[in-house]
Amino acid sequence: MFFLRLFRWFSLRNLRTHWGRALVVLLGIALGAAVFTSVRLAVHASLSSFVRSMDFFAGTAQKVLVRPGGYLPEGVLPVLLGHPAVKDFSPLLTTYVRRSDVPGDSFLMIGIDPLLDQAFRKWRISGDRDQATERWLDLIREPYTLILTEPLARELQIASGARLKLDHTRNSAEFRVAGILMPEGLALVEGGRVALTDIATFQEFTGLYGLLDRIDLTFKPKATPQDIEDLARKLPAELELRSPSAARDSGTAMIRAYQLNLSVLSFASLFVGMFLVYSLVALNVAARRRELAVLRSLGASPRTLFMLFLCEGMLFGAGGWMLAIPLSSLLVKYLLHGVSQTISTLFVRVQVEGLVLSPLEIAISLGVTLLTAAGAALQPAREAMGVPPKEAMEISQAGVRRGHSVRRLALWALGCILAGIPLSLLPGVAGVPLPGYLAILLLFIGFALLSPWMLERLGQRLAPLLRRYAGIPAYLAGRYLRDCGARTAISVGALITAVALFTALVVMIHSFRHTVELWVRQTVSGDLFVTTKMGQVNRFRFAIPETIVAGLKQMDVGADYVQSRRYQMNYGDFPYEFEAMGMETFLSHGGFVWLKGDPQETRLRLTQGEGVLISEVFATRTGLGIGDVFRTQIEGSSIELPVVGIIRDYRTDGGVVFYSWKHFKERFHDPQWSGVRFFFKDRASEVGGRVSALRNAIIQRWGDALDMVSGKDLRESVLRIFDETFAITTVLLLIALAVAALGITTTLTVMVLERSRQLSTLYAVGGSFRQIRAMIFWEASFLVAAGEVAGLACGFILSYLLVYVINRQSFGWTFLYVVDWGALAFSLPLIILTALAAAVPAVRMVFRAPPAALLRER
Amino acid sequence: MPSTPLNEPIIHAANLTRVYPLGDGSVVGINQVNLNVAPGELVVLKGNSGSGKSTLLSLLAGLDRPTSGDLSVAGNNLSNSHGMDLTRFRREVVGMVFQSFNLLPTLNVLENVSLPALLADKDAEETRRKALELLDWLGLKNRRDHHPDQLSGGEMQRTAIARALINDPALILADEPTGNLDSRNGMTVIDLLGQLNRTFKRTVVIATHSDLADALATRHIRIRDGAITDPSCDG
Ligand SMILES: Nc1ncnc2c1ncn2[C@@H]1O[C@H](COP(=O)(O)OP(=O)(O)OP(=O)(O)O)[C@@H](O)[C@H]1O
Ligand SMILES: [Mg+2]
Question: What is the ipTM of this complex?
Answer without folding.
Answer: 0.89
